[in-house]
Design a protein that fits this description.
By secondary structure, the chain is of the alpha/beta class. The chain folds into 3 domains: 85 residues, Beta-grasp domain (Ubiquitin-like (UB roll)), CATH 3.10.20.30; 238 residues, NAD(P)-binding Rossmann-like Domain (Rossmann fold); 99 residues, Oxidized Rhodanese, domain 1 (3-Layer(aba) Sandwich), CATH 3.40.250. It contains 19 helices and 20 strands. The chain has an 8-stranded mixed beta sheet with strand order 9-8-7-10-11-12-14-15, sandwiched between helices. The chain has a 5-stranded mixed beta sheet with strand order 2-1-5-3-4, with helices on one face. The protein has a 5-stranded parallel beta sheet with strand order 16-20-19-17-18. Helix 7 packs across helix 13. The protein starts with a strand and ends in an 8-residue tail after the last helix. Bound molecules: zinc ion.
Length: 484
């Protein structure tokens, strides 16, 4: 008898190890057999999915249809024909809710102007005068004023949330304007907070915008977050994401989570008093480098608009105490397929933060927790400066290996370089010779550092990483190369 056939969905960050496939059909009796069949076909996936002992890594969750296999029979969960198996790695994660009721004082009356401004809320039975007053007496903190922070800031300001805190320390750069619609060309080089405050106050002078021009850290997070009713995570990195989650759990604040990557997004609401937290979903972060950042991976400009708007919607529902908030649910959005999918999230009884026996009782060092303090793993002796690499290239002494994607090659490349996208390197190592001096480069030197490490582990002894990537080359060697 033949085994059940299921369709397994491969998440974007792992597709590079699976010939760019987004899904494929596999046969097996249970999840373990399905995963083994997947790894047999795409061997490089093994180290991302499994520990050395052959156990599923805990920054990877596997769902059978919409159920987390940890709450079924784990890897021994049997499958049947037509099932969907979904791998959900952590990327840079419903209950009816009248929780805030009674907490928020309903003060004051609306002025004539406010009645006009908010009339479309006032005539909604679910909001009405009481709801609008509640919003005006509430506060929200947006961590990160970027792609997600832009729609969040605009919609929450327009909705009349009384106090809106913003945390960011960056300045507006040209590459932000493709999606961060809070800013205009005139905002370039200005502080994001200043530009955002000006725009938001112009939109609604009734909202008090509070700018926190700092990096959120373990030292200041509790103090800043404690001032707000709801916290909205618009960050793009794991240390801040875990920091926001942990501080919210410790303070008992709801955390409206959103994340984006290329064409895919995730949204949920973490509220440990009523459901799981981010650590219940992902107890630990992926190793540095597995999940590329927006800068490395790209993002379609509208995507943060969609995900940030969904977060704004959830934040308003939390503040209003209306509707079914995304507590205990993870909403996945695939923009290319234009498809939403919803997965159930459960509270992990063993959660080190929100479980009954927590081991995390205060904020920790999140850079260290996310493995970011160990200088990307590549020793400085394996780094090469752009000027030196240029000189050696002119002398014909090196092979320059470009591990970026073909679309990046089309934007710009260094004459004489050989293009092998990072995900193909393991399959195309035979095109390289251990006898040659090889200098590996990417956009800014992060992906290429991993490939340099990878090749050295394979026995290549004459491999170096081009420090700062093609970006440093454009700056130091050849200004005719566009910087992106
Ligand atoms: Zn938890």
């Amino acid at each position: 008898m033949s085994k059940p056939k299921v369709v397994i969905q491969i998440p974007t960050p792992l597709r590079q190890y699976a010939e760019s496939k987004d899904s494929l059909e596999l046969e097996g009796e249970d999840i373990q057999e399905i995963l083994n069949a997947l790894i047999e076909r795409y061997h490089p996936l093994q180290k991302y999915l499994m520990t050395e002992e052959g156990k599923l890594r805990n920054f990877v969750n596997v769902y059978l249809n919409d159920e987390d296999i940890r709450y079924l029979e784990g890897e021994r969960t049997s499958v049947k024909d037509g099932d969907a198996v979904i791998i959900v790695p952590s990327v840079a994660g419903g209950v009816s809710t009248p929780p805030m009721a009674g907490l928020l004082p309903m003060q004051g009356e609306l002025s004539q102007e406010e009645i006009k401004r908010y009339s479309r809320h006032l005539i909604l039975p679910e909001v009405g005068l009481e709801g609008q007053k509640r919003l005006m007496n509430s506060s929200a903190l947006i961590v990160g004023v970027g792609g997600l922070g832009a729609p969040l800031g605009m919609y929450l300001t327009a909705a009349g949330v009384g106090r809106l805190g913003l945390v960011d320390f960056d300045v507006v750069e040209e590459s932000n304007l493709q999606r961060q619609v809070l800013f205009s060309t005139e905002s370039l080089t200005r502080s994001k907070l200043e530009a955002a405050r000006e725009r938001l106050e112009a939109l609604n002078p009734g909202v008090q915008v509070e700018a926190h021009g700092t990096r959120l850290t373990s030292d200041n997070a509790m103090e800043i977050l404690s001032e707000y009713d709801v916290v909205i995570d618009g960050t793009d990195n794991f240390p801040t994401r875990y920091l926001v989650n942990d501080a919210c759990v410790l303070l008992g604040k709801p955390n409206v989570y959103g994340s984006i990557f290329r064409f895919e997004g995730q949204v949920s609401v973490f509220d440990a008093s009523r459901g799981p937290c981010y650590r219940c979903l992902y107890p630990e972060p992926p190793p540095p480098g597995l999940v590329p950042s927006c800068a490395e991976g790209g993002v379609l400009g509208v995507l943060p608009g969609v995900i940030g708007s969904l977060q704004a919607m959830e934040a308003l529902k939390v503040l209003l105490g209306k509707g079914d908030v995304l507590i205990g649910r993870l909403l996945l959005f695939d923009a290319l397929k234009m498809r939403f999918r919803e997965l159930k999230l459960r509270k992990d009884p063993e959660c080190s933060l929100c479980g009954p026996n927590p081991t995390i009782k205060e904020l920790i060092d999140y850079e260290e927790f996310c493995g970011l303090t160990e200088d990307e793993g590549l020793s400085t002796e394996f780094q090469m400066d752009a000027l030196k690499a240029a000189e050696m290239l002119r002398g014909g002494e090196i092979t320059l290996l470009d591990v970026r994607e073909p679309v990046e090659w089309q934007i710009c490349h260094i004459e004489g370089a050989k293009l092998v996208p990072m995900g193909e390197v393991p399959y195309r190592v035979n095109e390289l010779s251990t006898a040659d001096n090889i200098v590996v480069h990417c956009h800014t030197g992060i992906r290429s550092a991993r490939i340099t490490q990878f090749l050295r582990e394979l026995g290549f002894t004459k491999v170096w990483n081009l420090e700062g990537g093609i970006d440093a080359w454009a700056e130091k060697v050849d200004p005719s190369i566009p910087r992106y």
